[in-house]
Design brief:
With 399 residues, this protein is mostly beta strands. It has a single domain, classed as Neuraminidase (6 Propeller). 5% of the residues lie in helices and 49% in strands. The strands form seven sheets. It has a five-stranded mixed sheet, with no helix packed on it. A five-stranded mixed sheet has the order 15-19-18-17-16, with no helix packed on it. The longest helix has 10 residues, at 10-19.
Length: 399
């Protein structure tokens, strides 16, 4: 689960609420906006639980604080065969969730997905159209969902962690004819420790060895730099004020070596993607006063990225997801602003300099946790904050 974009900092929430006048928003059950109404981004129609569909979000109102009865969240977008899949979870209590779409405009719930209490999906990967694999947690243990057609799914739970501890798989990649995953174990005293797994078939998973920093740590993203090199990114220290962490594997994910760089003190890394040009990591500045990004040509030597698109005039801005297309990199996230906060999409041609794309009116009150750059430009997350947390997908310009 990507707490970074859902659990916006208390100061940011209070500031946004005080400035905002609780402006009306479109009903959650409304049909997708037309291209004329949204020249750049089109909000798709995503099936919601009845509790959200019935919410009267089109009427002005005031609340302090605002807490939705139920929330639905999309944390991953994946193209699979001739369709698209969105994966995440509902709460409370947490249940894994998935949606399927043939055209990216209408998303329907996948009712066959195993979704026991306490389950959630954090990330997914498709392998050449043959199968799709998603990772997350279930009942306090790491969990893996697998499907050969996007309709029938099986759930495999990893061995339960020690009593009082929990475990979550937060990132996954296909590599070397198998899979690698990263995440964390959380002790009974709430200390997180970065964890890596490796699997040949996606069913049986073994722990990988890794060099870990002192104190708390967690993995938030995994990228395949090239057939011989995998890169994982994450956080060292507190997951709100910690610094970036990077690991590299040259043996298919069986072992991971810690990478150091003075640039890591600038912030924390929340996602990574790789192209032929190099590896990009994105996240948030350490002082929570803007977005942060890094670039590496080989996964070992890193430089901080720049650009006016990373600045939010000292207010919180977070890049939560990044993907690759034919023009470079696309990132998604959210920012605090004078209203209800809003979703943000960035683009970089080289991974070193970023601009944020023009805002769309439908981004108000939204936060993004996933991006798909190819074969179509899609972003996903939640909309309606602070009154409703409803899973949402937007189709980008040209998408």
């Amino acid at each position: 689960m990507k707490d970074s974009w859902r659990s916006r900092s208390a100061a940011a929430l209070v500031a946004a609420w005080l400035v905002a006048a609780c402006a009306p928003v479109a009903p959650t059950g409304s049909p997708p906006a037309s291209p004329a109404a949204s020249a750049r981004w089109i909000a798709a129609r995503v099936d919601q639980p009845a509790a959200i569909e019935a919410a009267p979000t089109d009427a002005p109102g005031f609340c302090s604080p605002c807490h939705p009865v139920i929330g639905t969240y999309i944390d991953s977008l994946v193209p699979f065969r001739s369709r698209f899949l969105a994966l995440g979870y509902d709460e409370p209590p947490a249940h894994a969730a998935a949606w399927s779409s043939a055209d990216a405009m209408a998303w329907h719930r996948v009712t066959s997905l195993p979704a026991p209490d306490g389950s959630s999906i954090s990330a997914a990967v498709a392998t050449g159209g043959a199968s799709i694999l998603a990772v997350g947690g279930s009942g306090g243990a790491g969990a893996v969902w697998h499907s050969d057609d996007g309709a029938a799914w099986t759930l495999t739970s990893l061995p339960a962690p020690p009593a009082g501890a929990t475990e979550l798989m937060t990132a996954v990649a296909a590599a070397g004819g198998g899979y690698v995953a990263g995440g964390y174990d959380e002790s009974a005293t709430a200390q997180k420790t970065a964890t890596f797994w490796r699997s040949v078939d996606g069913v049986t998973w073994v722990r990988a060895t890794a060099q870990l920093p002192a104190g708390a740590s967690e993995v938030t993203g995994v990228a395949v730099a090239n057939p011989a090199s995998l890169v994982a990114v994450g956080i060292s220290g507190d997951d709100r004020r910690g610094s970036a962490a990077v690991w590299r594997s040259t043996d298919g994910g069986s072992s991971w070596q810690s990478i150091s760089s003075p640039t890591f003190a600038a912030g924390r890394m929340l996602a990574a993607a790789a192209s032929a040009a190099g590896v990009v990591a994105v996240g948030e500045r350490q002082d929570q006063a803007g977005a942060a990004a890094w670039f590496s040509s080989d996964g070992s030597a890193w430089v901080s990225s720049s650009g006016t698109g990373l600045d939010n005039v000292g207010l919180q801005m977070v890049m939560t997801a990044v993907a690759v297309d034919g023009s470079g990199f696309v990132a998604a996230g959210w920012r605090t602003d004078a209203g209800n906060g809003s979703a943000v999409v960035w683009r970089s041609t080289d991974g070193r300099t970023w601009i944020h794309l023009p805002q769309d009116v439908s981004f108000s009150g939204a936060g993004l946790a996933s991006v798909l750059a190819s074969p179509r430009l899609l972003v996903g997350g939640t909309m309606g904050w602070p009154d409703t947390h409803a899973a949402q997908v937007w189709v980008g310009p040209g998408g």
